[in-house]
Amino acid sequence: MATRRRFWTTAAAVVGLVLTVITPAKADNPIVQHIYTADPAPLVHNGRVYLYTGHDEDGSTWFTMREWRVWSSADMVNWTDHGSPMSLATFSWAKQDAWAGQAVERNGKFYWYVPVVTKATGRPAIGVGVSDSPTGPFRDALGRPLVENGEIDPSVMIDDDGQAYLYWGNPNLSYVRLNADMISYSGGINRIPLTTAGFGTRTGDPNRPTLYEEAPWVYKRNGLYYNVFAAKCCSEFIAYSTAPGPTGPWTYRGTVMPTQGNSFTNHPGIVDFKGGSYFFYHNGALPGGGGFTRSVAVEKFSYNADGTIPTMNMSTTGPPPADTLNPYVRQEGETIAWGSGVETEPSSEGGMNLSHLNNGDYVKLKNVAFGNGARTFTARVASTVAGSSIEVRSGGPTGALAGTCSVPNTGNWQTWTTVSCAVNGLTGTRDLYLRFTGGGSYLLNVNWWQFSA
Ligand code: FUB
């Protein structure tokens, strides 16, 4: 999104605006600000939530999607960018359309089911990537599609008895019983009957009598099976059905999220995490956003006593923090609650780094637990210019200045050095702002940072 950011920076200078006018500092939804993301699929694993998404290319006028992305968080507000560990290139047989998928863990391996259009048929099929880590890299588990019927949007669920199910479909809703290896299935492709009792009544389209459109998200909670899905088209809203078993019979339960948010599609993902329940969706809320330039967002909710899901609206605030962020351990530069003007890129030291930082760009970290007080700020940085700095602030991007770290010219954007500076006034639990200053454009990169007490 670098080109778009440069455009906005220039436009702001010309008309005398500041960047904060178009990126309000208080907003925390959508989750990612530096690229467009779509089709959220959260997975809770070992105290973190991993968020698998698609990536809408800048300026798209269709669902132009070439790769998938992974993000993670331990608190639902500060999200780490893990880059793109799986793309169309992962699947030699894939032609285009890296659309909506879901990942699941079984026996220490992570299986990521995705739809792609195949070179052989020109129709969508479901492929499966596999990795030893939730952040990849993922490889093609089969070297061919797992299943093909020309439909999209796989959702995977492992039942308590160990039987795994893969659901998918638009316009139909199909499922297979996955074998324990998670990359083969038994019993052929089954159809879930799309009845109005099960999936609601659509008016005005005789070919699609029920509300079910696409994007099933199937899971089990307290003995009840849920299918949350994109309903009606277009624009879509999010609806859900429940059933006493994994294959039905389904009963339509109503609206999870009405049509809103400047995108004619929406796409659900639901998890429980650290005592709360969270609903992920997408909209067109970022500057330049719309139906083909979408962004993933999240809301916290509580199930009603009878297990039904309340109707939710999109917000720009998002959920409250589910935990604090520890500033006294290494934190990645690409861990961000809200970023203004920043980009990320793969780092020569592994993972990603914060990049393409211009004067006044900043990242916000939320709910940072400084305790009795931080004394020193340390950052791993690279730069090809002299005179750049990281301002350590709290209260806002131009709030109280706790310290300033100078960043030298290291000779290359991936030649790293460690800088430190004294800080004061950082006590208790508060939001932290790292603001980047200097002359010209592209000031510095940040791989990681850490405070000492
Ligand atoms: O992102 C491409 C498609 O748009 C997804 O597969 C659908 O669920 C809709 O969100």
TrEMBL record:
Catalytic residues in the record: 39 (proton acceptor), 214 (proton donor)
Occurrences of domain CBM6 (ranges): 329-452
Database matches in SMART domains: CBD_IV
Keywords: Carbohydrate metabolism, Glycosidase, Hydrolase, Polysaccharide degradation, Signal, Xylan degradation
Pfam families referenced in this protein's UniProt entry, alphabetically: CBM_6, Glyco_hydro_43
GO BP, sorted A to Z: xylan catabolic process
Residues the UniProt record annotates as site (Important for catalytic activity, responsible for pKa modulation of the active site Glu and correct orientation of both the proton donor and substrate): 153
Molecular function terms from GO: carbohydrate binding; hydrolase activity, hydrolyzing O-glycosyl compounds
Region forming the signal peptide: 1-27
Family: Belongs to the glycosyl hydrolase 43 family.
UniProt-listed PANTHER family: ENDO-1,4-BETA-XYLANASE, PUTATIVE (AFU_ORTHOLOGUE AFUA_2G04480)-RELATED
Full protein name: Carbohydrate binding module (Family 6)
Species of the source: Lentzea fradiae
